[in-house]
Amino acid sequence: MGSTSAQNNEGLGRRDLIKRSAALGLIAVPTMSFLSACASGDSGSDDKVEKGEKTDKNPLAVNGSAPLEIVIFDGGFGTKYAEEARDVYKKTYPEAQIKFSATQKIQSVLQPRFNGGTPPDLIDNSGAQQMDMGVLVGKKQLTDLTPLLDAPSVDDPAKTVRDTLRPGIVEMGQFDGDPVWIMYYAYTVYGVWYSQTALDKLDATYPETWDDMLALCAKAKKKGIAGWTYPGKHPYYIPFSLYPFIGKIGGVEVLNAIDNLEPKAWEHPAVKAAFEAYYELFAKGYILKGTPGLDHRGSQGAWARGKALFIPNGSWVENEEAAIIPKDFKLSVGAPSSLDSSDKLPFGTIWASGGEPFIVPAKAKNPAGGMEQLRIMLSEASSKSFTTNTKSLSAFNGGTDGIELSDGLKSGVAALEKAGTNVVNPRMQDWYVKLQKEQIGVAALGEMMAGRATPAETIKKIQAFADAAAKDQSIKHFRHQ
Length: 481
Description:
Layout: H1 4-8, H2 14-21, E1 68-73, H3 80-92, E2 98-103, H4 106-116, E3 122-124, H5 133-138, H6 146-150, H7 169-172, E4 183-195, H8 196-201, H9 210-222, E5 226-228, H10 239-250, H11 252-259, H12 269-283, H13 296-304, E6 308-314, H14 317-320, E7 331-334, E8 350-359, H15 367-377, H16 380-390, E9 393-394, H17 407-419, E10 423-424, H18 428-431, H19 433-449, H20 455-471
Parallel strand pairs: 1-2, 1-3, 5-6, 8-10
Antiparallel strand pairs: 3-8, 4-6, 4-7, 4-8, 4-9
Helix pairs in contact: 2-12, 3-15, 3-16, 10-11, 10-12, 19-20
Protein name: N-acetylglucosamine/diacetylchitobiose ABC transporter substrate-binding protein
Subcellular location: Cell envelope
Family: Belongs to the bacterial solute-binding protein 1 family.
């Protein structure tokens, strides 16, 4: 995409103009630290329940009388979909005693149980207190889900569960080699979320160039509306639109180098250009006042009430804020705007991937039961339940026939169609949770977007964090194959 500024400034692109216009020189403040997952400890019993008889209807040899424990993250998707799948399990295995619980404090509730060797049989490991996947995989604390993937699907025994999944889901659960450690159940569209109604009131369309984005933010500011907000207390939401922006500018290879913890990966010109563009939102006063002090619900609530036009987020936001999003909101998702005509990927490039990671612990007493529950969830009926209850797609490749799609879901599907093959899938958030959330997010991007650090300072800080992670032999390292 061409840039208005490039056309009017004798060939200068957005990158050059940003360098001249962004306000720099503010002082960085000390970083913060949070609890990180430390999945250690090998105590506890390794006793497993006895397996049942393997049959066509019971391909995983589930012991129908064995207890089953399930813990679900109680977040944007709620728990109704999981409760309905649990009820199917209970109907199939009426003798099984099922313990079902939900929490937002996954790490603080479950980490001690991992350390003690007494984890549940199935966990939805999601949310702000998500346990570090890389640590769990590196310390061999998860069950390989390959038997589930190779089992016959519920709807069509001629197809395996693997055959019924959306592209990329199996690969996301792989960290090193063939084993699949995680089943990502949701299929999330990440991007810049907005109200089409709000844009209509400003006589505007979604900005396809960064110049247009800034012009629209300026127009909104005159009306007393902020251009952007984000979860200031959880600034690792910012990459939901920033990472695909980087990939669009510099190509997928830039994101892969970042994931691979390659030296100087964060010093790539595409990263610098993207950071300077986002910093310009702060420098020009286009971010909602008070955003650094808002958590995810606070920022989403302010956005849903029309105080800001745009928010970086995932498709769960429609369900999470369903109670306050107005009926005439026309929820929509936009791909990153084009920086200038030299971008490597076209407008429409977006981040979409598996979300809501389900795991079966290695020390689970009933791993077959945990996988059977996932097999049930990956049926068409359960997928429809998930989509109906959460307004989001599932990993099951289908499950939307006969369902009236919500505005946000329709927009997400349209965005995927527009993207075509230009769908990126950064892995930082599931390979290196501490690096992504505490360091890149809170200690770096959060400081930059609050105006307490410049883009150059932020890049230097993040590269140092990434270099330290690459040298840290206590953590498992992963690479794009």
